[in-house]
Amino acid sequence: MRARLRTEWAWWLAALAGTAVMCWLTLQDFAWNDYDTEVSAAFRSLMGGDIHGFLAQAPVYGGSLVLRAPFASAAAALGGGELAVYRAVSIPCVLAVALLGLALVRRMGQQGRANGARALVLGLCVANPVTLSALEIGHPEELLCAALAIGAVLAAIDRRTVLAAVLLGLAIASKSWAVLAIGPVLLALPARRLFALTLAGAVSVAVVAPVFLAAGTPAGLAGSARITGPIFVPWQIFWFLGDAGHAVIGGNGLPKPAGYRAAPEWLSPLTHPLIAFLVVPLSLGWARVHRAAARAGNENVLLLLALLLLLRCVLDPWNIIYYELPFLLALLAWEGLCRPERLPVGALAASAVVWVTFKNAPGWLSPDMQATLFLAWALPLVAWMARTAFTTTAPRSERRPAPDRGPRAVAVAHQR
Predict the structure, then answer these.
(1) Tens digit of pLDDT for each residue in 278-325?
(2) Selected residue with higher pLDDT from 194 and 258
(3) Rounded percentage of the chain residues whose pLDDT exceeds 70
(4) Containing H/E element for 34?
(5) Is 289 buried (19+), middle (13-18) or exposed (0-12) by CB count in 10 A?
(6) Which of 183, 144, 386, 408 lies closest to 294, judged by CA?
(7) Does pLDDT of 6 surpass 80?
(8) Dmax over Cα atoms in the chain, in whole Å?
(9) What gap in Å lies between CA 324 and CA 168, rounded to an integer?
(10) Among positive and negative, which fits the CA dihedral 103, 349, 20, 133?
């Protein structure tokens, strides 16, 4: 570690500076955001020493609260109030994506990449504009889960089976969408895949079991989901199947602007199982196309992860801006490691388009036009990523220089 700090101190300093700026910009207060309505009550119970109350009041992503509980307890033990606890459980999530950026920068350095490309990757990891929205809305756990899921794939590529399984298990325990990383992790591992899957499952269960037990039933775990009510936003593929022409009440109990649609009754139980199921056919298809890659890990599997995470956004009627962050980080990791001849401009452009779509467009477009704008870039991006991921071109790590066909090589061949 000391040797790395001597050679990489500038990157560490930049990552810490970026983390400090992001925390300063977004962790001023948590009033009225999702942390306030979904999470703060659980951590208040923990501050008071009520462990059962903490677990029983955890939202559907309660596993991420369990992982961050030591930071909340430490802040409370030092005399901090609710704001200190909010910051204490959020800063580790920002640091997680900073560590992911540093890991990518190190790998890019080993490939001989230019410092400009490395700086862009680190900047988009640490100071992505979508990260600002995730923290402002009150979902720092999205950063943590994304870093864990991508880190699990990177560990699998390095053939570190136990580390990959543990990171995958922690990611799934943090938020359920991380099941989409199961396929990429198993594909990247060269062997011991059943062991890795079993260990990941055990780690995940160990984290979330206390939350389930405290909730009593899976329905009791719903917590905040019952409060927020049905959510149906324009930025998803099912928008135009919604019911139009009547007032729609949002999760905060206030009427939505004119033009909003109500979710069809048949849609709610369908979408999340469909999203989770996609990992099976897409992973099997990727393994069939990349037979050599399925036998030994390679970094191109990161594109499969990015594709799965983007499909999650497209197919989820609850799609909010911070849902896009894991896909953006996975795309950034793939571009940084697998396209050495180019800057990661795809992730940069996608981050900008996401920001415009979710933050600017609602002020000047109707809900139907917002849906059209989202689909106008999301569907072509899905198609391009799928086409790129499922081509048979040899991955960069598998390409080898052409054999020597000079006169000496020909003479040796004739002698044989």
Answers:
(1) 999 999 999 888 765 444 447 889 999 999 999 999 999 999 999 999
(2) 194
(3) 85
(4) helix 34-34
(5) middle
(6) 183
(7) no
(8) 85
(9) 19
(10) negative
Selected residue with higher pLDDT from 260 and 182: 182
| Tokens coding 349 | 């452009």
Residue with tokens 């890991």: 103
C-alpha–C-alpha distance, residues 146 and 310, integer Å:
13
DSSP secondary-structure letter at 215? H
The pTM score is 0.88
At position 98, the amino acid (one-letter code) is: A
**Contact partners, residue 407, CB within 8 Å, separation at least 6:** none
| Long-range CB contact pairs, 105-112, < 8 A, 24+ | 105/8, 105/11, 106/4, 106/8, 106/11, 107/154, 107/336, 107/337, 108/336, 108/337, 109/8, 111/337, 111/340, 112/340
Determine which helix (DSSP H) or strand (DSSP E) holds 171, and give its type and residue range: helix 161-174
Using CA atoms of 88, 90, 94, 99 in order, give the dihedral in degrees to the nearest 10.
60
* Burial profile 370-381: b = 16 or more Cβ within 10 angstroms, e = fewer: bbebbbeebeeb
Q: Between vectors from CA 299 to CA 298 and to CA 303, what angle results, nearest 5°?
A: 120
SS3 255: strand
Q: What is the DSSP string of 180-211?
A: GGHHHHHHH-SS-HHHHHHHHHHHHHHHHHHH
Handedness of CA 269, 279, 251, 82 (dihedral sign): positive
- Kindly list the distances between the CA atom of residue 90 and the CA atoms of 10, 43, 141, 173, 228, in Å, as whole numbers in the listed order: 24, 12, 8, 17, 22
Structure tokens at 223: 């917590």
Low-confidence winner among 84-93, 129-138, 242-251 (lowest mean pLDDT): 242-251
- Say if residue 116 is exposed, middle or buried (CB neighbours under 10 Å; 0-12, 13-18, 19+): exposed
Alpha helix positions (H), 253-362 = 268-277, 279-289, 291-295, 301-315, 324-338, 345-355
Structure tokens, 280: 């099976």
